[in-house]
Write a structure and sequence with these properties.
Layout (H helix, E strand, L loop, with lengths): L5 E7 L6 H13 L3 E7 L2 E7 L5 H13 L16 H4 L7 H5 L5
Antiparallel strand pairs: 1-3, 2-3
Length: about 100
Amino acid sequence: MTNMGDVVLEATSVTYYSYNDEAAFFEWLDKIGCVASYRGESRTLYITLAFGTVDEEDLRDLVALYRRYAIDLRELRVLNTDAVGPWFSDSARSWHDEVFGAPAQ
């Protein structure tokens, strides 16, 4: 974490298949409302989110972006907060097992 209102996600080894694919990734990232900033260091992209502004639409976009670029969705667990947690962590959501793990059998 950087500030009390920020959370930093780490996207490691993101694969871009062309220059335009990479440009599309960052254009998409720029359109997600809660993304405050991002910076790359070696093979890791650090994505700073304004934690208090994360909403359901932002979560859907982050899940979609992470899926499309094969980034580990478990990184999004930190977004399971009081504001969106019950909705985000609902086991009926298509991303539940990828983010939180499969329920015990």
